[in-house]
Amino acid sequence: MSEQTSPSNTPVNPLRSGIYDTSPLYQNAVMDLEFAGTTMGIDPNVLERLKLPKRALCVNVPVRMDDGSVKVFEGYRVQHNTTLGPGKGGIRFHPEVNLSEVSALAMLMTMKCSLVGLPLGGAKGGIRLDPSQLSRAEQQALTRRYTMEIINVIGPEQDIPAPDVGTDGQHMAWMMDTYSMAKGNAVPGVVTGKPIEIGGSLGRPESTGRGVIYVIEHAIELLKKKNLGNFVLKECSAVVHGFGKVGQVAAYELFIRGCKVVAVSDYFGGIYDKNGLNIPEVMKYMAANRSLKGYPKAEVITNEQLIGLPVDILIPAAIDGVVTKANMKNVKAKIISEGANGPITSEAQHYLESQGVTIIPDILANAGGVIVSYFEWVQGMQQFFWNEKEINEKLAEVMLRSFNRVADNAEKYKCGMKTAALISSVERLSQAMLLRGLFP
Ligand code: NAD
Question: For the segment 256-310, what is each residue's pLDDT rounded down to a tens digit?
């Protein structure tokens, strides 16, 4: 009988049903972890535990729609690892959400929090739907019912949700209100990414996009120091894939630094101007139309064409699995900062790095969001709030310290930044896991 193999080509474990392994994102996350683990010589018992989430809750969320009918939506909350502190991770509303994808995103959150030194674990949640098809009232009912369905596993000391693809501060306000109604008092610390009026932090909405650009600046400095490139940001060209909460801020931060952002895109496609787009104007158009479709002052391009444009910098800031074996050879950018989680598959990453492309990995590049979420949580717990200058300075400091740790490990282990980021993360996490030991 031939031996069955898993996607990462290791023999199938008879103790496992494989329910978490079904998505490419999960398969890639495990492959990357195994690769980093082998490179650093990870304790095999730690690796075994990190390949699976600690807990996964599946709920079915019934909602009365505006027309009086009832629809049931699939929802999830997954806690991957809580060794370092409460679970932390966004809530995604997207048509492709499933248990495996949410579990992979929870694993990335564990790695991210550990890498940047936060006292938080990794979690993620999501509901499988296209939010553009639901009215505001339907979205509110869905968010509140979902919160009640997962209420026993979330809380300021247990697991703290935040916005992700398809959700924003309003969804967090509904979650906070529902949780608070159930507990009998206001509990702002149950979510982050809330509006300022109910305990949100200044600088939180911009934090992820800002961090994506800070690390590009550090990478440019590093390349110069190593004589591997002499980029000057204000003379560079860039494209941004995904023009949502992360992509818009990243594009704006490039624009104000004088970098030419020649194309941006959303779910429906992209817009291109070889002389550089006026990003504030594009943002205004997006706010008014909720899509880039029909923007009058640029050429129309596809998302695929955007990925292959001849530019210095590529920022994937939409979803996972965007640069794959199928299109990796089209990429011409020399620096990639992963605004999205898992936008480049493992195979494409190794290929691009072999071609001299610098990839600043998701768990480092987009960590700005969870760093300022942590500041929001701390401010909420002590009811003492910082101004935006203080927030931005603290964010920049944590991003730089984390970048340097990754760069040092890339040098030490002679590997790319993606592997080095995972090593930096696992170094801290595995020490904590071994110190705490295995219960019972
Ligand atoms: P968002 O919903 O605000 O924006 C997502 C954007 O991607 C939209 O413009 C949407 O149209 C586009 N998009 C969706 N599917 C697409 C597809 N198939 N092809 C092209 N474009 C597509 O979400 P966001 O909060 O900006 O998150 C974007 C990415 O950044 C996600 O991977 C998320 O996990 C990651 N991230 C977000 C934060 C945060 O603070 N919001 C923090 C860390 C990581």
Answer: 999 999 999 999 999 999 999 999 999 999 999 999 999 999 999 999 999 999 9
Q: Could you tell me if residue 252 is inside a domain?
A: yes
Q: What is the CATH number of the domain that holds 312?
A: 3.40.50.720
Radius of gyration of the chain (CA): 21
Residue with tokens 């492709």: 96
Q: Is 242 in the pocket of ligand 1 (CB under 6 A)?
A: yes
Could you tell me if 122 and 241 lie in one domain?
A: no
Flag whether the pTM goes above 0.85.
yes
- Residue 68: partners with Cβ closer than 8 Å, 6 or more residues away: none
- Is 151 strand, coil or helix? coil
Is 433 among the domain residues? no
Nearest CA to ligand 1 atom 40: 369
Q: Which atom of ligand 1 is nearest to the CA of 362?
A: 44
* Residue nearest to ligand 1 atom 32, measured at CA: 340
Q: Which helix (H) or strand (E) holds 340?
A: none
Task: Mark whether 166 and 50 lie in a shared domain.
Answer: yes
Question: Does 400 fall in a domain?
Answer: no
**Residue 414 CA to ligand 1 centre (angstroms):** 32
The single residue listed with the structure tokens 């009912």 is 141
Three-class SS of residue 278? coil
* Residue 67 Cα to ligand 1 middle (Å): 30
Q: Is 187 helix (H, G, I), strand (E, B) or coil?
A: coil
264 lines ligand 1 (CB under 6 A): no
Q: What is the pLDDT of residues 60-79, one digit of tens each?
A: 999 999 999 999 999 999 99
Cβ(244) – ligand 1 distance below 6 Å: yes
DSSP 240: E
Q: Is 124 in the active site?
A: yes
